[in-house]
Automatic annotation (TrEMBL):
Residues holding GTP 1: 10-17, 57-61, 120-123
Matching NCBIfam families: GTPase_EngA, small_GTP
Biased composition (Acidic residues): 168-183
Pfam families noted in UniProt: KH_dom-like, MMR_HSR1
Family: Belongs to the TRAFAC class TrmE-Era-EngA-EngB-Septin-like GTPase superfamily. EngA (Der) GTPase family.
Keyword rRNA processing: no
Keyword Nucleotide-binding: yes
Organism of this sequence: Sphingomonas jatrophae
The protein's name: GTPase Der
Function: GTPase that plays an essential role in the late steps of ribosome biogenesis.
Length: 460
């Protein structure tokens, strides 16, 4: 049974993201003193004194033209409220009830979604008058809370409880945990979309979802938080496969990132890459491949994530065949350690290539998660060493004994032998390339660790 949903709504800078982080128990949403930090809806699972629900952080509610960025942010907030079981209306008790609070209250009264009222920043006595003013909004007793300090949790629980179903009995919870354990090996594909600003990441996410879930527009850098969204991707046979899409903020050259908020967004994007299984690097086909794209790709591979490259805006690209060949060649030169990374031409505007892109992501996840038996691995290893024996630096032979796979996701191998510390990097690349090509790992990052066999006479 899906969890009930609570949408936090209020004007800018009243502490919505701070409360969201408090409820989910993690610093997921970016928080800053300036207003308007949050733009897209961010969701997370929350627990409040045993009450479990899904909480949605929304952008500050502003009265702006729908065509402007604040106006598009408001549309996302309105959609979140309409889809919620209860709207948690948050005001700043120290500022008191403002005209914008009153406008939000009027709008909420017109909706079908029940409303719970909370007055934030109520620690100490500075917020007492604002809490009293909140009674006039017509949503019953306001819950005085401090999201930053964790005060008023019991009052918030009482405000939400009438609108949410309590947690099920313990045996239901245990059954859910068992289901999660069964699903873990084939859990949702965690797919992060990264790239430079204005490459079309949010538009691509919306096209995959089939709805305007992310705010888009001509302005660069609209997305600030990394937003994860779960969905079921339809398959050819009529079934579905679980998918967790992660939209991220654009990554500019490090030297250009000066603003504190942009630095936080970049750090959030890098955390999203670390969380993901497969990363789609989205390129703008009208601009081609730039050095920053290769830097992003290299960072993804260094993190050990599977990589897919997507050329977006294919519908308006000039000389497409020449462009594709040029980008393919540049990628193979710039990412020589993983030649053959999937390159897919897509259009977020028209939907071209989306099926091919998602299929490629599932395929590289399978390779990234693959495990080869020790027997199969060493049969290949013996053939590889026989075909190309290791060198003998200084006339002393390097003896390679055997190879074993130590881990997956990304695949990691340990090579045992004598004098392996003198094994040239070129020979290590020969082995890694052979593992990829001959054993079906494709263009995923492969780790090779060298370990010398223990000398039984070391302690004699």
């Amino acid at each position: 049974m899906p969890l009930p949903t609570v949408a936090i709504v209020g004007r800018p800078n009243v502490g919505k993201s701070t409360l969201f982080n408090r409820l989910v128990g993690k610093r997921l949403a970016l928080v800053d003193d300036r207003p308007g930090v949050t733009r897209d809806r961010r969701e997370g699972e929350a627990e409040l004194i045993g009450l479990k629900f899904r909480v949605v952080d929304t952008a500050g509610f502003e009265d702006e033209d729908p065509e402007t960025l604040p106006g598009r942010m408001r549309q996302q907030t309105e959609a979140a409220v309409r889809g919620a079981d209860v709207a948690l209306f948050l005001i700043d008790s120290r500022a008191g009830v403002t005209p914008l609070d009153e406008e939000i209250a009027r709008w909420l009264r017109e909706q079908d979604t029940p409303v719970a009222l909370a007055a934030n920043k109520a620690e100490g006595r500075a917020g007492d008058s604002g809490v009293l003013e909140a009674f006039a909004l017509g949503f019953g007793d306001p819950a005085p809370i401090s999201a930053e300090h964790g005060e008023g949790i019991a009052d918030l629980f009482e405000a939400l409880l009438p609108h949410l179903e309590p947690e099920g009995p313990p045996d239901d919870v245990e059954a859910d945990d068992e289901d999660e354990d069964e699903d873990r090996p084939q859990g949702p594909l965690k797919l992060a979309i990264v790239g430079r600003p204005n490459a079309g990441k949010s538009t691509l996410v919306n096209r995959i979802l089939g709805e305007d879930r992310m705010i888009t527009g001509p302005e660069a850098g609209i997305t600030r938080d990394s937003i994860a969204i779960d969905m079921d991707w339809p398959t050819i046979d009529g079934g579905t496969r679980p998918l967790r899409l992660i939209d991220t903020a654009g990554l500019r050259k490090k030297a250009r990132v000066q603003d504190k908020l942009e630095k936080l967004s970049v750090a959030d994007t890098l955390r999203a890459v670390d969380f993901a299984e497969v990363v789609v690097l989205l390129l703008d086909a009208t601009l081609g491949l730039e050095a920053q794209d290769l830097r992003i790709a290299d960072a993804v591979l260094q993190e050990g994530r599977a990589l897919v490259i997507a050329l977006n805006k294919w519908d308006i690209a000039g000389d497409p065949s020449s462009l594709f060949g040029g980008v393919r060649h540049a990628l193979d030169e710039g990412l020589a350690q993983v030649k053959g990374v999937p390159l897919i031409a897509v259009s977020a505007a028209t939907g071209k290539g989306l099926g091919q892109l998602i299929d490629a992501a599932f395929e590289v996840r399978d390779a990234w998660s693959k495990r080869v038996s020790t027997g199969q691995l060493n049969r290949w290893f013996e053939r590889a060493v026989e075909a190309n024996p290791p060198p003998a630096p200084g006339g002393k032979r390097i003896k390679l004994r055997y190879l074993t796979q130590a881990k997956t996701r990304p695949p990691g191998f340990i090579l045992f032998g004598t004098r392996v510390d003198q094994l040239p990097s070129s020979y290590q690349r020969y082995l890694v390339n052979g593992i990829r090509k001959e054993l079906g790992f494709g263009a995923v990052p492969v780790r090779l660790t060298l370990r010398a066999a223990k000398n039984p006479f070391d302690n004699k």
